[in-house]
Amino acid sequence: MEINEYQKLAMRTLNPKLSEKDVLINGVMGLCGESGEVIDIVKKHLAQGHELDKQAIFDELGDVAWYLAEIAEVLGFKLEDILQNNIDKLKKRYPEGFETEKSVNR
């Protein structure tokens, strides 16, 4: 599946009754909430002795992707463009790959 196809298919489940403002609010809050669920799984593994539940992280990352697509959609962005922009920024920042020196002295 292509990333923009994902965005289109995922947005079939967007609540059509929400205003643009409410979609943006829902997207940002949902992104934070789902990211928090990933953090909680890792916290339980690192601090509470649980096995690392990779399947749960896998599932939560899907939810993170949905909210990312929702925010992109309401702002008129395509996920492919967002991801390409990020890669371009990283290539400029770290043309030879990650270097601590370049990270510290940006």
Task: Explain what this protein looks like in three dimensions.
It is built from 5 helices and no strands. It is mainly alpha-helical and 106 residues long. It starts with a helix and ends with a helix. The relative contact order is 0.14.
Throw out a few tags for this protein.
5 helices, 106 residues, 0% strand, 75% helix, mainly alpha
Question: Mind sketching the topology for me?
Answer:
Elements: H1 3-10, H2 20-48, H3 54-75, H4 79-93, H5 100-104
Helix pairs in contact: 2-3
Annotation, overall tally of beta strands: 0
**Envelope shape:** globular
Structural class: mainly alpha
Let me know the average pLDDT.
96
Number of helices: 5
Proportion of residues in helical segments: over 70%
Radius of gyration: 17 Å
Q: What kind of sheet is the major sheet?
A: none
Unreliable spans: none
Distance between the termini: 36 Å
**How large a portion of the residues is in β-strands, by DSSP E?**
under 5%
SSE string, helices as H and strands as E = HHHHH
Briefly summarize what is shown.
This protein is 75% helix and 0% strand. It has 106 residues and is mostly helical.
